[in-house]
Amino acid sequence: MHSLAGAAPSSETRATTSDNASAGPAATATGGTETEPEEPPPPLRFVSSEWRAGREGRHAALPARRLPICFPTLTLQMLKLPPEQLEQLRETGWLREVAFRTTPEVTKLEIAAYLESVYGMSVERVNTINYLGRVRTAYGAGGKAYVYREDDWKKAYVTFRPPPGMEHLLEAATGGGAAAEGREQQQRPLLERIREAARAPRSPRRRLPWANKRPGQAGAGDGGPGGASE
């Protein structure tokens, strides 16, 4: 009995529901002002989709295709450490400044972001110097000389911050206190000398043997061994 009474609604409940349903529209009509249905919120769109304005629904324009954003392929080659830095690395496991070799198109921001995101290092600053590739001569079969030029490259001096909780390494590396500024000033001349050497005028390039021949000598000009043709 209890289960049947709980499953089937009573007649009083059905009557009350039907009365409310029939009185609803009438009450709304006699109530005065009708409430307008709220407009649905606009659909969420990604900013990068860039849908064209004024076109909605089925005929909405597709977003303009863009080239994918690719991270550059960095090549950071750590240069050989001097004996002083090797000794400091064995003692503390941290270095204040390290030199790297990379390609010329890599920027300072990319070098710092790469070291921080990939290796978790805290970079303070990056100084870079561009180098031109050396001109070399190779000799092939028969003693024929081939002159070629190596690729240009960039040297990056990266200055790191000490790990958290190990700030004493910075004081030990720089001397601490007033000596720290002196240590920084001692490190700066090295970079300044490198920059001055890079800006210095280069010595004139050595002329190739066949370029030193004057027009009248054997093998010069269009006349062959007899000299320039008239």
From TrEMBL:
Which Gene3D superfamilies did the record assign? 3.30.70.330
Q: Where is this region: Disordered?
A: 1-47, 174-230
Family as reported in the entry's similarity comment: Belongs to the universal ribosomal protein uL23 family.
| GO terms, biological process | mitochondrial translation
Is Ribonucleoprotein included in the keywords of this UniProt record? yes
Alphabetical list of SUPFAM superfamilies matching this protein: Ribosomal proteins S24e, L23 and L15e
| Biased composition range(s): Polar residues | 10-21
Q: Where is the composition biased (Low complexity)?
A: 23-34
GO CC, sorted alphabetically, is: mitochondrial large ribosomal subunit
This chain belongs to which protein, by name? Large ribosomal subunit protein uL23c
Which of UniProt's keywords are assigned here? Ribonucleoprotein, Ribosomal protein
Q: Spans of biased composition, class Basic and acidic residues? A: 181-199
Q: Where is the composition biased (Gly residues)?
A: 218-230
- The organism is Gonium pectorale (Green alga)
Show the GO MF annotations. structural constituent of ribosome
Is Transferase among the key words of this record? no
